[in-house]
Amino acid sequence: GGKGGVGKSLVSSSLAIGLALSGKKVLAVDLDLGGANLHLFLGVKRLTTTLNTFLTHRGADLWSLPTATDFENLDLLGGDGSQLGSANVHYAKKMSLIRRLSIAPYDVVVCDLGAGTDFNTLDFFLMAHEHMLVTNTEPTALLDAYGLIKTALYRRLDGHVRAMRVEGDLRKRLDDFFFGRAKTETPQSLTAFLAAVRREDAVLADKLKAEAGAFSVRLVINSSMSANDPARVARIGELAVKNLSMAGIETARIPFDMSIRRSIERVVPHVVAQPESPASQALFDLTGGFVPNPSAALSTIRASLVHRRRGLARTSA
User: Do 261 and 117 reside in the same domain of the chain?
Assistant: First the structure.
């Protein structure tokens, strides 16, 4: 997830390629329903089947829709944002999609999400076991990043409140807090609010605080111009601990690379076009966090992509 234009599809596609080359059976899913373009980042210029069929046709078989890519072990479930209403998914259909993706016949499902904090985006973000948020160092992007973390956490906690069947005035105050309708005298941070709730229902407050502490997010700083950028965005992690009762936020850095735009224009995955660039190396390192033997896996991935790059160069010549 993350703000529009910060490189979510670049990170998602590179992660999917890396995991597939490491031997995992991977499905890449384009869940940017109103602006689907993940297929282009994977080198697929045209889709014959898309996720839209499942979302708009009753009884459609989801597993008949993935498209094979040029990478062994990697399938793509792409989308078509040009269809009117493609971003407006009925709740029941969304939940049906989430249930199916949770039992997908793949080792890993990598989902590329749209921008914003609408319920569809939040629910797709929360269904994942690993939450990765892409940003850059622009103030607006950092503000959006913190906003997504906060609203996703509140959406998650609201689900627990519903499951615990909290009722009465306490339920109303919880709803008002999560949805931004709280009165001015209500504590503004989740940490302070849960301390107030604890005076009425210690079990509920402790449960919600534990859930907040277990909510993990990896913040990826894309197009980073300085090795000091992770320190510059550390404020987000500090706020997450202080205001949201989270344990902290991991950060990773993808250095700025002018050649990424050329790769996109050529419809060639950047890790294929420039596998030895600093940006590609950093993208490979992200993959290493999801495999049991990172060193061996990264060596395999790099060797495979360098070989593919040579083949691409011969074809271009």
Answer: yes
109 within some domain: yes
Strand order through the sheet with 26-31: 67-68, 74-77, 26-31, 108-113
Domain count, the chain: 2
Query: What confidence tens digit (pLDDT) does each residue in 41-75 have?
Result: 999 999 999 999 999 888 899 999 999 999 999 99
- Torsion angle of the four alpha carbons 51, 8, 242, 137, in this order, in degrees rounded to the nearest 10: -160
Q: How many Å apart are CA 224 and CA 28, to the nearest integer? A: 25
Give me 27's structure tokens: 């499905």
Instruction: Tell whether 135 is covered by a domain.
Output: no
Helix 139-163 vs helix 168-178: crossing angle, to nearest 10: 160
* Cα radius of gyration (the chain): 21
Q: What range defines the domain where residue 100 resides? A: 1-129+257-317
- Cα dihedral 41, 272, 285, 125 in deg (nearest 10): 10
Q: Which residue intervals of 103-201 are DSSP H helices?
A: 119-126, 139-163, 168-178, 190-198
Residues 179 and 119 in one domain: no
Q: What are the distances in angstroms from CA 241 to CA 3, 189, 190, 252?
A: 22, 11, 10, 18
Helix (H, G, I), strand (E, B) or coil at 313: helix
What is the overall mean pLDDT for the chain?
90
13 Rama sector, left if φ>0, alpha if ψ -120 to 50, beta otherwise: alpha
Whether 270 is covered by a domain: the verdict is yes
